[in-house]
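User: Here's a chain of 193 residues. Predict its fold as tokens.
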Amino acid sequence: MHRQKKAVEETRDQLKPGEVFYYADEFNISWLPTLRAMWSPVGQQVMVPTPAQPVRRYGIGAVDYHTGETVVLTRTRKRRKEIAELLQQLLEKHPHERIYVAWDNASTHQDEEIEAVVRGAAGRLVLLYLPTYSPWLNPIEMLWRHFRREVTHCELFENIEALLAASQAFFERYNHRLGGVRSIIGSHPAQLP
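Assistant: Prediction complete.
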């Protein structure tokens, strides 16, 4: 485990010009509000309504460790096909750079569809795997936590579309405040030679 973590960090911290480094993962976007402690008047409990039928979507995203820019797709499923879409988006976003993507060993991150994208990138896409069952090693998890705190904690949206619009607005807002994302994930601006 320690060796994998060290290899990922060395790659991340020793980028050359023309290389970018992303952490990637998936997260749930549930219409059912995430409940957390909140202030209320003494002796009164705040009531948070919940939908009769919870609906779920999935965010599949990546964050550039050095710039803080995010690429997030919202889908109804998080299968290998959708994971391959994220990798394709990163390749389109960086048509001339070598892209490193660090993520966990989930089964959706390793199969023929993913390998086809890697082969099609002709050496421009390098996948790095973090140790299994160690989400604390993936800084994007802090961004997902911040997303939940700011968007979904104790909040019931009128419908799933309103929740998805609020989710998209969150990532767009933070893509205009990249220092905020770097602060959340604990990174620093790239200083390439």
